[in-house]
Every structure is written in structure tokens, then in C-alpha cells.
Amino acid sequence: MENLIKDNVGQPAYLENLYRSNPVEFADAFHVVYPEIQTELTAQIWHERLRNTPNEITWGTSKDWIFVAISALIVAFLMQMPDLFSISHDFYFPRNMAFIAMPGIAAFFAFKQDLSLKSILPPLGILLFSVVFINLLPVGPMSDTLLLSCIHLPILIWLLVGYIYSGAQLSQTEKRINFLRFHGDLLVMSAVILLAGGLFTALTINLFGLIGIKIEDFYFRYLVLSALPTVPLLATLLVQQNPTLVSKISPVIARIFTPLVSLMLIIFLLTFIYSGKDPYNDREFLLIFNGILIGVMALLLFSVSESTKDAASHFQRLSLIILAFLAIINNGIALSAIAFRLFELGITPNRFAVLGSNVLVLVNLVFVTRELLGLWKGVKGLKDVEASMTRFLPFYALWAAIVSFVFPLVFSFH
């Protein structure tokens, strides 16, 4: 995006189309390259425009809302399919939830960027193959490999969304980091919509209750169930049309919770050592421990992506380094426990899948920590940190695909 802006700074129409395709990415890239192009009149006009963005909310075009409305109807139909066609809920929802909400977001990005059919054929082919594969897995009690496929397929679909978001250019570090930043704003906006929806739900149910009509079962079964997966798509539209609406909230959240989580992890590790808890023979504890690690890793990646957006304070960067080191320690404990159980109790799909995931996360953490230390010492730049953080996205996608598609075959669907 930065190179496109610099190369086409004298073409107002091109810059306008570039801005409308992705306002958030355009604004971030423009502020980076503005010192190099500030002598251009067009650049000066854009600088004033982006600096003085109006406070009014932009609701998008009628085409945008028609697209969202059609997507919402499709989602509602997919959510009601089990009842319409007498399909078991236990069969349908674990296998297909990843294909209900996220493809709509990918389709929205493809629609806004006017991507060619050739660009979207690879992710579309993977999506269709995933739908067919997961629904053809043997019917019966939930096996370990089926559960692993249901858990890992959303990760693969999420990265396919990133591929579409980037305009089929996810190999570029800048595109990847913007995709991660987008999720911070998306989560904030989705939370606001859910809060408003919750208040509306409480008001509606209580109003009908006043006249003696109980609508809870109908309301939640048909309206809430059908509308809930549409929330991320609606949030995506609002975030894309109003890039400054919540863009300042995400960094605040990151800066508040990074030191708090670091402190919590220090206290937790000290308490863990003092309590003498044995993660090697306590499966439930190990599962919770890995859940904590996933949450810390997500916070670290989100915090790094927000902190590299501008000149973060020394305290913020120090907090990131501490959090990264603590995450490595947590990962090391979890990895040693998983390896112990694997060699002592034998190979199972769950143990092997978690082992591979933890190894990937550990290597990723080491690279990120190294670059953060270099940034702290002044020998590395923000781009180096961003590159180290996003470099492993293809490996996560590859591992998710292996666990989803290969494990059921290798372990005979057990």
C-alpha cells in the first residue's frame, strides 16, 4: 500500500479508489509515507482530509447494505438448516459453524475490493473441499480426530479470510499486520453491537412478559440464533467505513492489559511453583494451562501489532518483552509436559496435535522476543518486529490443514 501511494500520488482518482477499498490500511500507510511526499499538493490535501476526518458515522452505500442483508438471510438459513431438514444439531453445528460466519466476511472483502474470480478461486476451492470433507467424516460418537478437525478448520478458514482481506497478497508483511490490526477494531465493534443487542433482547422479552406472552423460546431459537453469526459481518462493514471510530480504543486496551497480564502471569508462575502442582500427570490442568498460553499468545500478537502502529513508549515495549518471556516460560512448561505424556503414555491424535501447535508457538515466540529485544536496544526496526510476528501465519495454516485433513486418515478416524 505504501508503494502504491507513493507511485500514484499525482493521480487523485486512483488514490480515492485505493482509499475506499480499505480506509484503515490506506490511512496507516499514508501517514508512514507522508514525510516523503509532503511536497506534493495531492498529498497535502489527503493529509488534511485524513487528519480532519469528520466525526459523523459513515453508513456505507446501499450496495453495501444489500450485500449485508443478503448475507444475513443466507446465514439465517444455514443456522436453521438442522430444523428445516431434520439434521442432528450435534452433527451439524460442530462441523459447520466455521463455514457460516467467516465466509461472509471474506465475501465482503472480495466484493469491496472487486477481486477477480481467478484471485478467489484458490481459497474458494479450499473452502468447498473443507465443507465436503468435514461433513463426510464418519457419523458416530465424537472421535478425537473429528474434534481436532472441528477445532482447527476455523483457523484455516480464518487465514483464508486474511488472504481475501489482503487482496490475494497475504505474503506481504504489511498486509498481514493490517489483517491482525483489523481484528482489534472488529472485536471492539462486535462487543458494542452484542451489548446493544443484549439490551434490546432484555427490553423486548420483558415488554412481552408484561402482557403475559412468553417469547423466550421463539426469540432465542429463531431470531438470536439466526442473527448472532451476522454480528462480525456488520461490525466489519462499520469498521471499514469508519476507520477512526474504534481505532483508538484497541491500542488503549492493548496498553492497559499487556502489563496487567504480565503481572498476573508472574504471580501465577510463582504460585504454581509454590503449590507444587504436577502438570505432567494432571490432564485437566495441562488443558487449562494450554488455554492460558493461547490467550497470552493472542494478546501478545495483538499488542505488538498495535504498538508498532506508532511510537510506543519504553514502558509499553518493556511490557511486551516481559510478556513474551513469560509466554516462552509457559510454553516451555506445557511443551515438556506434553512431550512427557507422549513418550510415557503413547501417541494419540490429541497429544500429537497439541505438541505440534506448541512447537510452532514456541518458535514464533522466540523470533518475536528476539526482535523485540533488538527494538529495545535500537538495533532493530518496527518492520522487523512485524515481520517476525506474521512470518509464521502460513505455518499455522499448514498445521491446521494437516490436523484437519490428514489426522483423521492417519489415525483411522479415532
From TrEMBL:
<feature type="transmembrane region" description="Helical">
    <location>
        <begin position="393"/>
        <end position="413"/>
    </location>
</feature>
<protein>
    <recommendedName>
        <fullName>DUF4153 domain-containing protein</fullName>
    </recommendedName>
</protein>
<feature type="transmembrane region" description="Helical">
    <location>
        <begin position="120"/>
        <end position="140"/>
    </location>
</feature>
<keyword id="KW-1133">Transmembrane helix</keyword>
<keyword id="KW-0472">Membrane</keyword>
<feature type="transmembrane region" description="Helical">
    <location>
        <begin position="352"/>
        <end position="373"/>
    </location>
</feature>
<feature type="transmembrane region" description="Helical">
    <location>
        <begin position="317"/>
        <end position="340"/>
    </location>
</feature>
<feature type="transmembrane region" description="Helical">
    <location>
        <begin position="285"/>
        <end position="305"/>
    </location>
</feature>
<feature type="transmembrane region" description="Helical">
    <location>
        <begin position="219"/>
        <end position="240"/>
    </location>
</feature>
<feature type="transmembrane region" description="Helical">
    <location>
        <begin position="65"/>
        <end position="81"/>
    </location>
</feature>
<feature type="transmembrane region" description="Helical">
    <location>
        <begin position="252"/>
        <end position="273"/>
    </location>
</feature>
<feature type="transmembrane region" description="Helical">
    <location>
        <begin position="186"/>
        <end position="213"/>
    </location>
</feature>
<feature type="transmembrane region" description="Helical">
    <location>
        <begin position="146"/>
        <end position="165"/>
    </location>
</feature>
<keyword id="KW-0812">Transmembrane</keyword>
